[in-house]
Amino acid sequence: MIEKNDLFQIKKSLENNIGQRVQLTAKKGRKKSVTRQGILESTYPSIFIVKIGNETEMARRVSYSYTDVLTKTVELVLCDNNKVIQCS
Questions:
Q1: Could you please report the per-residue DSSP string of 10-59?
Q2: Residue 72: which H helix or E strand, with range?
Q3: Please, which residues bridge with residue 27 across strands?
Q4: Pairing with 1, which of 25, 66, 71, 73 sits 20 to 30 Å away (CA)?
Q5: Which helix (H) or strand (E) holds 64?
Q6: How many domains does the chain fold into?
Q7: Does position 10 have pLDDT exceeding 60, yes or no?
C-alpha cells in the first residue's frame, strides 16, 4: 500500500537534486521502455518536470508524478554519482 511518507521521501529527494543531470527510464507498456537524459528542472506538489534535449535538438519538458517513481513506472538515476532516486 502506498503511504504518504513514501511519497514525501521521494519528493524531498527530488527537491534536493533540482538542476542535476538525470537519466530517466520510463516504461511505456508491454516490454517497451524509453531511456533519456535530461535535467531535473522543478518540483510541484504532485509532479516533477525534467527538461530533455541538447544543443542539436529542441528542448522539451516531460512531467511525471511521484507515484510513477514509487511504482517503478519511472526510474531516475543521477548521472553524477549513479545514485538511484526511489523509495527506500
A1: HHHHHHTTTT-EEEEEEEEETTEEEEEEEEEEEE-SSEEEEEE--SSS--
A2: none
A3: 33
A4: 25
A5: strand 60-65
A6: 1
A7: yes
**Model confidence over 18-58: pLDDT tens digits?**
998 899 999 988 889 999 899 999 999 999 999 997 666 68
Contacts of 58 (CB under 8 A, 6+ apart): none
Contact 3, 67 (CB under 8 A): no
CA–CA dist 25, 68 (Å, integer): 11
List C-alpha distances in Å: 42 to 6, 28, 55, 56. 19, 23, 20, 23
Q: State the CB neighbour count (10 A cutoff) for residue 17.
A: 18
| Structural domain span for residue 22 | 4-85
Question: Which residue, chain included where needed, has cell 517497451?
Answer: 32
